[in-house]
Amino acid sequence: MMRAGKFVLIVGLVVLAAGCQRLSGGRNYAEPLPATPTTPVGSGQLAPLDPNAPAGGLNDPSAQPTDLASNPVAAPADAKEVGRTDLLGGWKITSAGDNCMAFMTLTTWSGGYRANTRGCASPVLSGISAWDLSGNQVVLKDGAGLIVAQLYSSASGQFNGQTSTGSPISLYR
Predict the structure, then answer these.
(1) What are the pLDDT digits (tens) for 14-52?
(2) Is the separation of the CB atoms in 161 and 151 below 8 Å?
(3) Separation of alpha carbons 34 and 79, rounded Å
(4) Segment (H or E) for 6
(5) Could you give the CA distance from residue 107 to residue 87 in angstroms, rounded to a whole number?
(6) CATH 3.40.50.10330 fits 84-172, yes or no
(7) What residue intervals traverse the membrane (predicted)?
(8) Which of 26, 30, 118, 165 could make a disulfide contact with 21, Cβ separation 3.0–4.6 Å?
């Protein structure tokens, strides 16, 4: 019995010593990876802006937002009734050339229910933090509770409307 105890003690010490060697930066550590080469950033002249392009838009920080709370988007004649559970989950969102994802939950949050977006280049779309229903209208809001967009359900099952910057917006699966 005494020999078994000594054997366990010796094996334990050997394992402990091996572990200490690993933690001390010994030969068992992998070499650090070399730096990854990068390509240089290009330079050159930008093409002139199109003077006939419409002013404003989602990517224009100087665009004046529309007050959608006091000036709501009119409901189309074929707008369908919408329930909260109809909006749960992931949606594709498009507006002014931006294509990204929106996710909606029933977690209560300021201004309605929790929402977030991923992959949106526009500050307006990436700022969506909440959603709510107002009759058959879907309202998307930012972190301050300001309305970002108003949408209505269409016969095709997608939601179409307008952003606070006046751009068309669509949610679809």
Answers:
(1) 666 555 554 555 566 677 777 766 666 666 666 666 555
(2) yes
(3) 58
(4) helix 2-23
(5) 13
(6) no
(7) none
(8) 26
